[in-house]
Each structure stands twice: as C-alpha cells, then as structure tokens.
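Lab channel / #folding
Pinned by the channel admin:
"Please post every new chain as: sequence first, then the structure tokens as a reply. Keep commentary short and put observations after the output so the thread stays searchable."

First post following the new format, from NK:
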Amino acid sequence: MSVEGPASQPGEANLYEQFVAQSGKAHRLLAVHWELTYRCNEKCTHCYLDVFAPNAVVPGELTTEECLRIMDELAALGVLNLTFSGGEVLTRRDFFQLAEYARSKRFLLRIMTNGILIKPAVADRIAALNPYAVEMSVYSTKPEVHEKITRVPRSLELTLRAMRLLHERGIRTVMKTPLMRENVREIHALRALAQELGAQFRYDTTITPKDSGSLSPLQHRITYEDLVWLFREEFQPGMFQKRELGPEARTCGITQFAIVIDPYGTVFPCIQTRVAAGNVRERSIREIWQGSHVWQDLNLTLNELPVCRTCELRNICVRCHGIALMEDGDVRAPATVNCREALARRQVLIEQGVLPADYPIPAHLQTSVLNSEPYLPNFVPVSSLGVPVA
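Reply from TO:
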C-alpha cells in the first residue's frame, strides 16, 4: 500500500519519506485504507469486488456508531492518513457524518469516489471537509470505452463534471487510470485530460482477479507487447539504474505502517493481501495491530523468498505479496504478473543501453512465463523482440 502525504516540495517529500520509513521500523500505524461499503452505482468489469446495488441492504456493514468508535481508536494510535473508499462511498447515507468526524480527529483525509453523485451541493459539502485529495477513476477519454467498462450510461460525463466542480472549489483532485487493453494507448490523451481538469494524473498497470477468485477482470490486463510499449513511452531508467536489493530488503511495504479495514470490520495488511489479521468487532485496533501474528508472517525480506532472492531480475522487479498468494498460490513464490513486468523493464533497459544485451533471463521464467501466458493469448515472448534468451 502506498502512503501519500502532504509533502509537496522535494525537501518536504524527503522528510516525509524518512518519517514513513521510521514508522515502518517502529511498527507504528500511520495509514488506514477503509472500504466503507461494497455498494456501488457502477458495475465496472475490471473491479476486484463483487459489488452490491447502490440501495441494497447489506447485512453486517459497520454501523455509524461502530465507525465513530473505530476512528477514536485510530486517533488514539496516532494514525495520520485516512482514506475512505468503497464501492462508492457516497452510497452510505452517513458518509458526511463519518467524514466530518474524521476531520474533527485531524486525520489527513483522502476520498475515493466515482463522482457520479457529486452535484454542486455535494461538492460544497466535500469542499467544507477540506480533504487532502479526492480521487476518481477515468478509464478513457472516449465515453463509449469508459461506459463499456463502468456499464453506466453518461458515467464519463458525470465523473468529469464532479472533477470540475471540485476543482472550482479549490479541492485537490486526482484522476486515476487503471491501464487496460482498452485504454493503454490513450495514456498521453488521458494525461492531457487530467491537466485540462487541473488534476494530478496517476496510472497503474495492476489488474487482479476478484477477491472471490473469479478471473474475469484479467480479460482487461494489458499484453506483454503493450507493457513494452508503455515502458518505452514512460520509463525513467534512473528509477532502477542504481537499485540494489540486498538479502534484508523488503519488496513490499505491507505489515509495516498501514492496514485495510473492510465494510464488515475485518482488518487486512493491504487491499491486495486478503489475509485477515482480526476484526474490530472482536478486538480493538490496538490489539490487532500489536498482537496479530499476520504482521510477522508477512513481513518478508528478500532472503525469505526462495526463488526471488536469486533472481537476476530482482533489482528491476516490483513484487506484490498479495498477487503472489492469489494468482500463484504461495506468498513466497514469484508473482508471475510481476515477473512479466520485470521482463518488459529488462527489454526497455536493454534498448536504452542501461543493461547489456545479453542480460540473463532467469531459468524459472523461461518456462513459466516465456512459454506460457494462461490469461493472455497475445503474449509476446521476449526472444521474439530480438532479445537473447540466456
């Protein structure tokens, strides 16, 4: 889980990164991502959740009183960053009561919404919260593409309306795009749209199976060929040029300073790693944070990953424990989709002269990735791109 804070200048960013690192070492809870509801007024085809209708009665959701108590506990622990997400957060009738209470506790509040329900009066109420940021997903600059994913007519129009309303009120907005087969080649147009809206632009290549185990979202995962194209367009080699991961390095920041709370009170290490650490109806946040074995079990260093620790691509790989567990069945195994991205980075770094042309491909990838791509029939082997296979 990434933890973004209030730093805006380079020096401030460095100080904040140091603060986050120190929090991780001290196992201090710094950030909470709270899924308030799984009800939603969109039905996105790539979503990792099986959402409920916006007006559905969902037994077991945390009550208003329980949510207020949990925020008291978080404040007592010194939590700084609080993110409210869904589903769609505005389908909770008590959303503004919860958000106002969060601000009264001086949390740095981030709100994730699709914006469909944001009209001028709602935008005024959000502005009164003075949130750190409001984030909305945009899947295409083309209404027909965006709406094919959300399965809601006019959804692009309504989301963009919300972004404009919030920007007019001085609220920092973030336009997020999960890159998919349908939109990856639009990345420059999407960035230009964000700039036009006065929004920060962020994208992510991660499309995962549903939490239920369904693989249906993977129909959207970009191909290897698209990954190589994207890295050619966007890659900054300095990010990996001097990256050296030693035996005690952690490839993932989970367990160190952040948690996820789902609508029913279950606490997880992160959005992707659905290993329950406890439930807030049974134990306090403090007891879960200080006493659950999950934090030790998943606080893995590179040395504890039998294949990854000797992999030649480890320094250019961004590995997710949760994806390894969900897709490959073992939290300590290579995450195949992350291996694929590392191979694409290898390709582009070779093209840019950062890596030598004969930079080896690990043996475990020559069979598990290069020769088979179960979810992606258009997979392009690295060898067919003119790169020698070791």
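NK: Strands lie at 31-35, 81-85, 108-112, 133-137, 173-178, 200-204, 258-261, 266-268, 278-279.
TO: also worth noting, The first helix runs from residue 10 to 25.
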